[in-house]
Specification:
The protein is an alpha+beta fold. The chain is 39% helix and 15% strand.
């Protein structure tokens, strides 16, 4: 661990309003990588669309839930932890309660969902008093794969960012897409009310685009596609530091450096005949970039509901899936992190309960001993 870098760091803020650190050095690597990319997409690139995958199937608890594809933890468990953190911090939990209710509502509908059924879920922006940006999200999805044997349903989800939306626009979109009478008056009513629509309907993106007057945002999306691969080695190195159990202050500095790199690359690639910063090289370590950015802090950004510069809070984005990201776990002030289960055979990781067998390869505890994966 390059402790000299940590010792030279000045004015580190160890909390943000866009995510928090719940120290978990064995966080799922794939989940963390996706969450970093999603965070950068929302807060630094302002991408208009972002893709997600979810499963409705057997969780780490052996129960049927809407689950993360990487760690198979129930989304309702992630939502519950997010709510509990807000309670511990003495913050308003109206949105968190509505999101949890929405997840439970979605699970009930998914029990009856069939291949080809569509999902629509709307998330208006939060109050400006919470330093929220003036944008929200429309989530559209489809049940595109089903496995009757495992009782699993795969959901492909798209988060569509909408700028300066009104509740009237959200109501209008829901009325058209669901063919129901919708007269919601609060953001929380939308959050608590996802819809699974049987059968096939087309032109949902056209409906959203028309009602919310979406402008093509191909430049930001193109920059994101070009720059994320350049950031990949730094993101991977950051994940390695997490796995190695680096101090929180060091991790926060390292993550801020990744943000600063992203911002510099956005500026450079927005110019004609631009050149990337000289230290963006797959063979140059993250610590070198950290030295180059010594003393610099990424600018505060008002998120869809939460800011990247407020040391007192945590992520409450209108992008529901960012609320439950592993970044929120990693950078939380909570002390109740649990040691994850790591399968000795296939390497599957989760912080949830797994019972007597690995949810991935089905290796039981007895088999692990017999086959020599563990010793008594």
């Amino acid at each position: 661990m390059p402790t000299n870098l940590l010792e030279n760091r000045v004015n580190i803020a160890v909390g943000t309003d866009a995510f928090r650190q719940e120290y978990s050095p064995k966080v799922n690597s794939n989940a963390l990588r996706k969450d970093i990319e999603s965070y950068l997409g929302e807060y630094r690139f302002d991408v208009q669309e972002y893709q997600y995958e979810l499963l409705f199937g057997t969780s780490t608890k052996g129960e049927i839930h809407l689950i993360d594809v990487d760690d198979r933890e129930p989304m309702v468990d992630k939502a519950t932890r997010a709510l509990e953190r807000r309670v511990d911090e003495g913050k308003n939990i109206n949105r968190e309660e509505a999101e949890l209710q929405g997840l439970l509502n979605l699970e009930r509908q998914l029990q009856r969902a069939n291949l080809g059924d569509k999902i629509i879920w709307m998330s208006p922006p939060g109050p400006t008093s919470d330093c929220c940006g003036d944008y929200g999200y429309i989530f559209t999805g489809v049940v595109d794969l089903t496995d009757p044997y495992n009782q699993e349903k795969h959901l492909s989800m798209t988060a569509i960012r909408v700028e300066s939306p009104t509740l009237a626009q959200f109501n209008s979109a829901l009325i058209i897409l669901t063919e129901q009478v919708i007269e919601f008056e609060k953001a929380e009513e939308f959050l608590a009310s996802p819809f699974v629509i049987p059968g096939f309907w087309e032109n949902s993106e056209y409906v959203v685009s028309y009602i919310f007057n979406l402008k093509p945002n191909s430049k930001n999306d193109s920059l994101y596609s070009k720059i994320i691969p350049l950031l990949s080695p730094y993101i991977n190195e950051f994940i390695d530091y997490v796995k190695q159990g680096a101090p929180k202050e060091f991790l926060f500095w390292a993550f801020q450096t990744v943000e600063l790199l992203a911002l510099d690359l956005i500026e450079e690639y927005s110019r004609v005949n631009s050149l990337q910063p000289f230290f963006v090289d797959r063979d140059v370590p993250l610590t070198y970039a950290m030295t180059n950015y010594q003393g610099q802090v990424p600018p505060r950004v008002a998120g869809s509901c939460g800011s990247t510069g407020n040391s007192s809070g945590g992520l409450t984005s209108s992008n529901i899936f960012n609320n439950y990201s592993s970044l929120a776990e990693l950078f939380s002030t909570s002390k109740d992190g649990k040691e994850p289960f790591v399968c000795p055979k296939c390497g599957f990781e989760t912080t949830g309960s797994v019972g007597n067998q690995c949810p991935s390869c089905k290796l039981t505890k007895d088999q692990a001993v017999i086959q020599g994966y563990v010793t008594c």
